[in-house]
């Protein structure tokens, strides 16, 4: 359990102690993506920008500073991902790595479930290719 903020903290961003928790989450996630044969081809060789964008988005989404929108505009997640072929295999691989990163983050059970539910919904929302099965 993250102990750096009091239980009365109103946002998940505050409860986990701020940006460093989300940056570590993204680091754990991309450590898995690097070796994933389904996901790695979807990313550029240099993951620096992808890491920064995902960290910034998550920080903002979960109650932190709105730096992401100030720098990049509205998130428009579906539009930003339309150029990538995302089907069920990509969704499942992405969610699997993100879920593992969340579970290893030391959250309270409630916060962990909230994040897992969000990421499951977001991964499905970004699917833009029909299943071939």
Protein architecture, described:
α2 crosses α6 and α6 (88-103) runs antiparallel to α7 (109-125). 58% of the residues lie in helices and 0% in strands. The N and C termini lie far apart (40 Å). It has one domain (14-125): Globins (Globin-like, Orthogonal Bundle), CATH 1.10.490.10. The chain contains seven helices and no strands. With 133 residues, it is mainly α. The chain is globular. The model is unreliable at 1-7 (pLDDT under 50).
Tags for this entry?
disordered N terminus; 7 helices; 133 residues; single chain; 0% strand; Globin-like
Quickly describe the structure.
The chain is mostly helical and 133 residues long.
Present the secondary structure layout.
Elements: H1 12-15, H2 19-33, H3 48-61, H4 67-72, H5 77-81, H6 88-103, H7 109-125
Helix pairs in contact: 2-3, 2-6, 6-7
CATH architecture: Orthogonal Bundle
Give the overall silhouette: globular
Major sheet: none
Number of strands: 0
Total domain units: 1
Task: Classify the beta-strand content into a percent band.
Answer: under 5%
Helix/strand-derived class? mainly alpha
**Helix-strand topology string:** HHHHHHH
* Termini separation: 40 Å
Our count of helices gives 7
CATH class membership: Mainly Alpha
Work out the radius of gyration: 15 Å
Q: Helical amount among residues, as a percent range? A: 55-70%
- What do we call the CATH topology? Globin-like
- Average pLDDT figure: 88
Unreliable segments of 5+ consecutive residues: 1-7
CATH superfamily: Globins
């Amino acid at each position: 359990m993250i102990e750096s903020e009091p239980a009365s903290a109103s946002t998940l961003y505050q409860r986990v102690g701020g940006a460093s928790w989300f940056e570590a989450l993204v680091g754990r996630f991309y450590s898995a993506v690097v070796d994933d044969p389904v996901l790695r081809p979807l990313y550029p060789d240099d993951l620096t920008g992808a890491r920064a964008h995902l960290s910034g988005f998550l920080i903002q989404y979960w109650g932190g500073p709105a730096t992401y929108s100030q720098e990049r505009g509205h998130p428009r997640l579906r539009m930003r991902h339309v150029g990538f072929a995302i089907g069920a295999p990509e969704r499942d691989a992405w969610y699997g790595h993100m879920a593992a990163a969340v579970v290893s983050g030391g959250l309270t059970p409630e916060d962990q479930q909230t994040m897992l539910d969000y990421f499951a919904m977001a991964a499905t929302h970004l699917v833009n290719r029909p299943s071939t099965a």
